[in-house]
Amino acid sequence: MLENSEPFVIEQGSREVFVLEEVALRNYRNYAEQKVVLSPGFNVFAGANAQGKTNFLEAIYLLATTRLLRGRKDAEAILEGTEQATVLGTLREGATQLSVVLDRHARKRSAINGLGLPRAADLIGRLPCVCMSAEDMAIVRGEPSDRRLFLDLELSALYPAYLRHLSVYKRAVEQRNSLLRLSREQFVPGEVFEPWEVQIAQHGTAMRQFRNEHLDRLRPVAQEVHRQMAPGEELSLFVERNDEGELADLLVQSRPTDTARGGTGVGPHRDDLGVEISGRTARQFGSQGQQRTAVIAIKVASLLAAREVLGAAPVLLLDDILSDLDEHRRAHLVEVVIAYARQAILTCTEASAAGEKILKASRVFSVDAGTIHVE
Asked: pTM score, two decimals?
């Protein structure tokens, strides 16, 4: 295990740590005012399309990651005609309250028990979650940046050390990029670059170690789940580095090239997550069914890895995912949910899509035009 790779955990081994007891929304998406008391087990939110099911699930995802599930701008999640959106979540363990405030004219803010945090991202890790939605197809189909984001969010939620490395690394790259652009217009001595390049090399190397170790944890589980869902096919996961050698040396060597491009061309911010099925790149050669199966296998592995690292199951979010699967894959995923999830929030157009096994253990909610009721 890496040095300083302590996980976010409140009480090791407890199965009650990461349970979301209540969620309150104000001016979020199509919710003017809504409060929902969740079951500590399974929760099914059913309703027609465009009624607010995914919006509610996204609000929980926002508390967990400080990011939107859909869209790029925070203002998109603020109810039209209002200036601020607020999401509050109360954790069962210790009645801890997490909050995120989105503002049309200011940066988003986060708080724990009403105490504002220096950065919104400091909330990450307080409510670990694994989310499965249509957006996850970007892990296979999307750009390298989508796959890096997947790894960064997972690792930041599990290890505070990784989040620190990532934050310092990003700032150092931004500073080096500014110097590279400046050097196009005037001479910038090498020693001016050195402090930032030292930080990039130190924290970038640590990030790569975390990523490799995390993939070593995910890989065997993802491969086994994939074999069960797609017999005869083999899933491969690996980090694709964009460079070879010591990062500190590469940064010095690449200054002329980087000056011409106006940005840093080496480092973990340029790496990719390789996903192959039976030796062929899933993005280019995988069918839609193969790509979907690969994503589900990766996400199931993420759920089990988080349980192992944290000593408690993260909250599981399933956004209308079951209805998109054939009977074999759906049955397998349901078994995984029942066996390994502690608290789960599922959305579907009809509650029956969750399956009889899950429904028997669920609190069922109906969602209609931005209003949620317990069935």
From this structure: 0.91
